Amino acid sequence: QGKFTLLRDTRTDGSFLVHHFLSFYLRAGCKVCFVALLQSFSHYNIVAQKLGVSLTAAKERGQLVFFEGLKSCLDLLFGEEEEQSGQPSPLQFISTSDLKALFDFVRTSLTPSGSDSWKGPVLLVDDLSILLSLGTTPVAVLDFIHYCRVVVCSQLQGNIVVLVHSNEDSEDEENELVVNSLCHHSDLILWVEGLATGFCKDVHGEIKIIKRLSLELTGEQDHVQIYQYKIQDKNVTFFARGLSAAVL
């Protein structure tokens, strides 16, 4: 509890990790606020059903608060967004560059009420880089994450899982600034990279698991593990480098 997990992908798609954490926390009985900026609800629901979880049922019983950024963004831009219960749209920053409304949405969604029996609050964001594409400044994004950590991790003793795209060779300095800053504050980093040698049907990429022991001020160095993986229809297999089933 109280941990911040960063999902980082380079030269590949790390969204399979988002689907894993979403189904994992729902099965664990946690209250989940999912800020989905990359795909539609039906997309996440179809994948979750393959993993044995129904997002529709989770929404109906109040366990999942799903914010569909794609739809809300279009509604806001074309003037069709209706304010719910007098509250401004969480995507108000598109016109004001202020993420306070989005933070208020997260805080309201995860603050427990008297009748809640969920184990712990979880904030899941896919994908944080989209906020920069919508015109938000890096400082505003980092402030948003900082305030979310204070409320979710510190006050409510919950967890935050955030996905960001990165490309060390790109000229997008703002995105790399956000990615590098988040790496310094994360308790756990799952860094997914495409193979340097190119496409392979038996090995889809490499994952670096970095446990930030240095944050605990014990004098220990960060613990790093590196595996390769292959994504299958309903699960993912991990193995040491060079030890895929195709090689053995």
Automatic annotation (TrEMBL):
Gene3D superfamilies: P-loop containing nucleotide triphosphate hydrolases (3.40.50.300). InterPro entries: ELP6, P-loop_NTPase. One of its GO terms (cellular component) is elongator holoenzyme complex. It comes from the Eukaryota. GO terms for biological process: tRNA wobble uridine modification. Keywords: Cytoplasm, Nucleus, tRNA processing. It is found in: Cytoplasm; Nucleus. The keyword Transcription regulation does not apply. Its main location: cytoplasm. Pathway: tRNA modification; 5-methoxycarbonylmethyl-2-thiouridine-tRNA biosynthesis. PANTHER family: ELONGATOR COMPLEX PROTEIN 6. Belongs to the ELP6 family. This is Elongator complex protein 6. It comes from Pterocles burchelli. The lineage of its organism: Eukaryota, Metazoa, Chordata, Craniata, Vertebrata. The gene is Elp6.
